[in-house]
Structures are given as C-alpha cells and as structure tokens.
Amino acid sequence: MRRISIVVLGILSIMLVSPLAAGMVQVESGDEGGERQPVRMARATWDTGWFQAEVYRLLMQRLGYQVEGPVTMDNDEFYEAVAVGEVDLWANGWFPTQDVFLQEDHVELVGTQVDDGALQGYFVDKATAEAHGITNLGDLASPELAALFDEDGDGLADLTGCEPSWGCAAIIDHHLEAYGLRDTVEQVQGAYSPSIRATFDRYRSGRPVLYYTWTPNWTVGELQPGRDVVWLETPFPSLPLEQAAYLDRTTIAGIRGCANDPCQVGWPPNDIRVVANSRFLEANPSIRRLLEQVVIPLGDISAQNALMVADEGDPEDIRRHAEEWVDANQALVEGWIEAADPEAVGLEETGGAISAAGGRLAVAVRILPPFVVYDDRSYSGFEVELAHLLAARLGMEVDIHAVDTVAKQIDDIDRGVARLALGGVAITESRERLVDFSLPVLNTGLTIMAPSEADRHIGDRILMFLRAIFSSDLPWLLVVFGVAVLISAHVIWWLERHHNADFAVPYRQGIWDSFYWSVVTMSTVGYGDKVARGDKGRVFALIWIALGTLVFASFTASIASSLAVSELRGEIAGPSDLPGHRVATVSQTSGAAYLSSIGVGPVLVQDVGDAYSLLQAGEVDAIVFDAPVLHFHASREGAGELVTVGPDFEQVQYGFVLSQDDADFREQVNLALLDLIESGVYRQLHDRWFGPLG
Questions:
Q1: Backbone φ, ψ for residue 344 (5° rounding)
Q2: What's the sign of the alpha-carbon dihedral 318, 321, 327, 331?
Q3: In angstroms, how far is the first alpha carbon of the chain from the final one?
Q4: What pLDDT, in 10s, does the model give residues 545-576?
Q5: What angle do CA 589, 592, 594 make, to 5 degrees?
C-alpha cells in the first residue's frame, strides 16, 4: 500500500507541477524559442521623456515584438512594478538621481541613451545677477539679496523647485540645509509645469527669477543660459549620503552662463538609461542587445521638447516626432536591429491604458489664457470657473493639476489620474479617436488683431497719407492735373503775350507767369494780380475756370475719400484685407494653415507673446490667431494699443476632455452643461470673460 500511495502521489505531483513548469518555460523562452510575449512598457510622468519612450517602442517593434503601452507611472510605482515583473522596462531612468530606487531585486540598468549629459542646476535672470553680483547660491544667505526673489512677502527668496515626489526635491532641500539657507530661501513646490511657466512670466515682466531646471528640457531653450539667465554655483560640493560617491562630479567644465570654468553646479551630470526587469532581459537577449546600443543625442531630445511645448503636444505629434527621428537615422537604426537580431521583423503596435476613477473631480489643465490662467499660485479662467460650476452641479469638488501638453492631458485621462481635462482643447477627429469630448463649451475660431487707431503716432499718419496719395486713381489724377495746367499755361501765354504786361513776352519768364495764373485760376483762389485782358484770353479764362474747377475738385475729392476710407478701415478690417500685409501667427496652428491657404506667407513665431511684440514694434501689420486668446489680450494687456478687427472666422469648437470608458460620467457632464446654459449661468460667465454673446 505504501508503494502504491507513493506512486499515486508522484503521479499527482507531476500532474500539478507540469502546467506550472510549462508556463514557466513559455515565459522564460522569450526570443530564444516559443512564442514571444508582448513587451509591457512604462514611461515617466514628465512628458519631456515621452519622445524617448516612443523611439524605444518603435525600435522594439522593428525587432519583431508587440509592445503594450507605454503606461505612465511615478518613480516608486514603476520600480516596484518592474521588480515583480508587472512591467518589463522604461527608458526614463536618471542616474544617479534615481539611485535610491535601485534597492529592489531583479532590476537592471541596460544601455545609455544619454551619457553624462543630463545636467541640473539653479538659475537667476542675468540682469539681476549682474546688477547685484550674484554668482553663487550661497550669496542668497544675505537677506537683502534673498529679498529680491521674494514673491509672497514672507521674507524668503522663492526658489521654484521640484514636485515633492521627484528625487530632485530632496536634493534641493539638502542643499538649502547644507549651505545655511533655511532662513533666507524656500523651495516652492507643487506642479512644476505651472510653477515654471509663472516664473518665466515674471521674467518677461522684468522681475527677478530664481529657479531649478534640467536638461534636456524646453526651459533651457526658452531662457538660454548666458544670454537670458546665469547658472548659480554652489558654495561647495554637497549631496545626500546615498549620493556621496558622486561629489567629485559636481564640478563641470564648459558650462555656458556660469561665472567660472569649471563650474561648481552642485549636481552630478546624469546618465539617462533604460531600466528593465532582469528576468525579462535574460529571456529576451535580442532586446538586451538592442538596448545596449541605442543612443539618442541630447540636442535631438531638446529640439523635440521645444516642438512639443510649441503646439505640437498631441499624442500623435509625439509619435510622429519619434517616427521622423527613426526615419532620419535609418542607417543607424538598421545597424542596431541587425546587431540585435539579423532576422528581426517589425510587428504592429498594440496599445494599452490604465483607467481608474477618483472620489473628487481631478482636472488636468493646460495653461492658456483666457481658458486657464495661473497667477499667484492659483488657477482661474473661463474653463476653470466653468469646471467649478459643473462640479457643483454634480456635488463634487475640483482638484486641479497643470500639464504642458494635450498629450499629457490625454494620458492623464487614460490612466485615471484625471477625470476631466481642459484648457482650450479643440475638438478634432484625431483626438476623438483617443478620448471623448463633452458638448462644446465654446464656439469660436480665428480673428485678427491690429494696432489701435488711437495709438497711431505722427509717423504712422504721415505714412498713411502717403499710402493714400499713391493708392487708387490718385497717381493718374496727378498726371492729368499737371498736363492740364501745362496746356493752359501755354494757351494763355500765347493769347496774352503781346498786349498784356502780366504775361511777359520772353518764353522762359512768361511761361512761369502763365503757369502761376493757371493754378490759381483753376483753384478759384485767383488773386487778381494776373488777369486776361484780351477778348480771346478772357473767353479761354472762363472756359479754364469751369474745367479747372472740375479737375481740381476731382483731385481733392479722391484724396479725401482715400484718407477717409483708410482712417475708417484702419487698412485691415477683415480676412479679405490680409493679402499684401505682413501677418504674424503661431507655427503649427490653424492660423498658420489659414494664412497659407489664402496666399499670405505668415511671419511664424513659437509663442503668441512673440507675435504681440512684433505687432507693437511695427514689424508686422496684424496677427491671426485663436479668437478668445486675442480678444482677451486686447481687452487687458493690450488695451488702448491693440484691437481685434472684423468677425471671427474658421470656426472651431472647444470641449472638455473625458475618457472613452466613462460614458456615464460624460452623460452627467453634458446634462450639467445644459443646465448651466439653460439657467443663464453660462451666459453670465461667458459675458464676463469674452463680452456679450452674439
């Protein structure tokens, strides 16, 4: 019996273990045998790293893998997930900044996409630094110097720092402690995107700024070190204990905009590397070989980040940027693929998303006045107020966080970080494929902005007069006027030269007297100092008075008409007046597409604020851009100097962004919007921000 029992138990054990063993063999087989498993990819919460994630996704597809995601995760969330194999990898590892997360087993770094090139540090505006001799963070131990950067009146310099969950936040706090700055400097924490934008707005208004940033990032392109801002050195190398091994790397040579070379920036340069599950890499050696080769130049990442912030921030834009980069580096990419797996064949993309629901109404906003305004660390604006009214109808409270791009908004919606997104997001077919929209919250379009007539200087009016003279039929009338006067002068001289002393016989003297008589007689101003005395001369004089009055009247009427029309119309009164003028707009927008479609080669800028500057400097005649944005600026910062002219055109609808998997909530939002409209509350809000509804 014992022998039979042992045999039975052995058989049962084999039956139970075999499926598990078979499953393990399938998972571990990877690309060395058996069916390949999809790569489960993650990406960081900062959208300035999504371009690299897209590049890696494309490369693994060309290697023959399906790729799920990438899904967005916080640092700690990712490192826990990759350690247990819930995700396989991400391309957004920063080291040594993320060294603290490398305590987990089965987590491995592979390859180096950016080697020692990701820099971090502290910056102040160049004007303040030069005026007060500020070159070192330690200088701010002086209360007088720190007060220059005090925005909230608490006596401490406001240093725009990191979000609390980022590794850099702890290092900034360490620096403030180590350099004895706790009594004079505070790290301003919160959502980095609106904080740094508010900081840059202060710079543009001429106020001192103090902030932390990193490369690659759009910030160093917006305010360039050495030109607009300067790097602040730190008094001496100091890092948290876990990064003490990198103290000798915090002094870096060749830092543009630093007072010394080498520059003590206080931060070691970071490598940007892929972080992956080690078991996944063992099972997929071709992916390991691929990841070990990939290098993406820092300049390419920075250039893409600038495009993403300058109105190319939709998910499709970021995917297109990655595709264009891969295509532009085709030979290099083919070499990587060949070295990883000579027989690799790309597979089609399969995506994945994480969705969740929150108890409060989490809202992801993109700052774009007047839809979303960020001022004094608080949010306002037409759509922000509308969202609060809507939430009140639903019995909810609003939690707002800001992002830079539409792509980040859509991602936050997909993974449940936000349930609603807003900030002048136009309803388009490509976005409808990814998310749902509410009913339109605003029907608008493009409009034209031009200088105010009241703001014209004497030079502008002289130029307008000259344009009136040389426009329409005036040049021809001038020719007719001159020819008629010349003929009249010769006729009266011929008729009067022998018997009238008023018209001298010598031609050279007499023709001048005759010319004078023709002009004053035609204009009916005749002084009586020169008159026709013969019968023939008097008959001609009568005829000339009649004809001359008509010629002169036509001439003066044409000038007056042209000046009046020019004055009333301000030269540009609508879209039909744009051809022939210098017109600015923001690149990659509907305004740029419209101007090109009507044959106007626009002056392209990256930010609408640059267009305002060009218009006020007289370098362009008008701006074409989103109507709410231009109307808002004209009624506030541009009041008295800039006006919008003509009707809105090229109609566009804006809506709230919602998840495709949240149909019930979308229905609630739409019903609440209809209630706000029917109750008249929407009209009151609209009128306050944009003026009365038409």
A1: -65, 140
A2: negative
A3: 96
A4: 777 777 667 767 666 665 554 444 447 888 98
A5: 105
Token code pair at residue 681? 């509350």
Q: Which residue has the higher pLDDT, 520 or 90?
A: 90
CB 642 within 8 A of CB 612: yes
Whole-number Å distance between alpha carbons of 133 and 236 = 18
Q: Does residue 258 register a pLDDT over 90? A: yes
More confident residue, 20 or 182: 182
Q: For the segment 110-165, what is each residue's pLDDT rounded down to a tens digit?
A: 999 998 778 999 999 999 999 999 999 999 999 999 999 999 999 999 999 998 88
Please tell me the distance from the alpha carbon of residue 50 to that of residue 53, in angstroms, as a whole number.
5
- HSE-up (13 A, CA, CB side) for residue 251: 8
What residues are paired with 552 via a beta bridge? none
Tokens matching residue 158: 């406001």
Packed helices 298-309 and 315-328: angle between N→C axes, nearest 10 degrees: 150
pLDDT of residue 569: 41
| Spatial separation of the C-alpha atoms in residues 680 and 670, rounded to whole Å | 16
pLDDT band (50, 70, 90) for residue 10: very low
Query: Tokens in use for 50?
Result: 């999504």
Mean pLDDT of 528-537: 76
Residue carrying structure tokens 């995107």: 193
Angle at 307 between CA 305 and CA 309, to 5 degrees: 70
107-118 and 89-95: which strand pairing? Answer: unpaired
Q: What is the pLDDT of residue 15?
A: 39
159: left (phi over 0), alpha (psi -120 to 50) or beta: beta
pLDDT of residue 141: 97
CB atoms within 10 A of CB 484: 18
Give the CA angle between residues 198, 203, 204 to the nearest 5°.
Answer: 95
| List of residues 6+ apart from 218 with CB closer than 8 A | 48, 302, 305, 306, 308, 309, 404
In sequence order, which residues have a C-beta less than 8 Å from that of residue 151 and are 6 or more positions away?
Answer: 158, 202
Q: Which two tokens stand for residue 6?
A: 């042992």
Nearest CA to 463 among 618, 268, 668?
Answer: 618
CB count in 10 Å sphere of residue 466 = 10
Provide Rg for the chain, Cα atoms. 36
CA 400 to chain centre: 20
Give residue for tokens 């917006």.
222
Residue 107, phi then psi, degrees to nearest 5: -115, 130
Query: Which of these, 5, 7, 80, 98, lies nearest to 42 by C-alpha position?
Result: 80
- The Cα–Cα gap between 506 and 486 comes to 17
- Encoded amino acid at 212, one letter: Y
Contact of 87 with 71, CB cutoff 8 Å: yes
In eight-state DSSP terms, residue 390 is: H
CA–CA distance, 592 with 584 (Å, rounded to integer): 9
- For residue 28, what pLDDT is reported? 40
pLDDT score at 157: 97
Q: Report the run of H or E that residue 401 belongs to, with start and end.
A: strand 398-403
Residues counted in the chain: 694
Which tokens sit at 690? 């944009």
Pairing mode of beta strands 378-380, 373-375: antiparallel
Q: What are 186-223's pLDDT values in tens digits?
A: 999 988 889 999 999 999 999 999 999 998 888 998 99
